[in-house]
Amino acid sequence: MSIEIIYFVHGTTFDNADSKCSGWKQVNLNEQGKEQAKRLGEITNYKFDVLFTSDLIRAVDSANLAWPELEKIQDKRLRECNYGDFDGEDKSLVKYEEHIDTPFPNGESLLDVQNRIEDFIEFLRKNYDNKTIGIVAHRAPQLALEVLTKNITWEEAIKNDWRKTKEWQPGWKYVID
């Protein structure tokens, strides 16, 4: 038995456009982000048994614009990393390599995010075995899925992050056995 996850990232936000990191800060999609989300719904043809989103508005709005007809379940475990004092600040301050096991000031570490995603995966195993799950969320939870499903290190996940390689795609597939 296995679970297939199709993972999507939210559209561009006002903070993204201004080179700021958002973390747990609530920030809206800008016009480009709204168009990206609508386009995502048009170009994907996945059939989900259930669609989860982070509870942060940028992920919720992206999912609602992409798939308005689908019911969504918000889950706080899918939130972006809490950058603490850096939430809303210049994105150059957010150096993932320095915060794998060291929390951001007054925030979380990437291992904290990994623990949240492990808990979410256990929830899926108990409730959604043999299902296809859609997720709309953020960077750190996606990298945690990379680490957990591909048996790679955080350093490898960060190095190969599509945001660095510029290899965006309309959904990433992960399998949970």
Give an overview in words.
This protein is an alpha/beta fold and 177 residues long. The chain has a single domain (3-176), classed as Phosphoglycerate mutase-like (Rossmann fold), CATH 3.40.50.1240. It is built from seven helices and five strands; from the N terminus they run βααβαβαβαααβ. The chain has helices at residues 14-17, 31-43, 57-66, 110-127, 139-150, 154-159, 162-165, and strands spanning 3-9, 50-53, 72-74, 132-137, 172-176. Helix 3 links the parallel strand 2 (50-53) and strand 3. The longest helix has 18 residues, at 110-127. The radius of gyration is 15 Å and the shape is globular. The model has no long low-confidence stretch (mean pLDDT 96).
Ends apart, CA distance between termini = 6 Å
CATH superfamily: Phosphoglycerate mutase-like
Please report the number of helical segments.
7
- Averaging pLDDT over every residue, what do you get? 96
Strand order of the largest sheet: 3-2-4-1-5
Helix and strand pattern: EHHEHEHEHHHE
- Using only C-alpha atoms, the radius of gyration works out to 15 Å
**What is the CATH architecture term?**
3-Layer(aba) Sandwich
How many strands?
Answer: 5
* The top level CATH class name: Alpha Beta
Low-confidence stretches: none
The CATH topology comes to: Rossmann fold
**Count of separate structural domains:** 1
Estimated share of beta-strand residues: 5-15%
Helical proportion, percent range: 25-40%
Net shape: globular
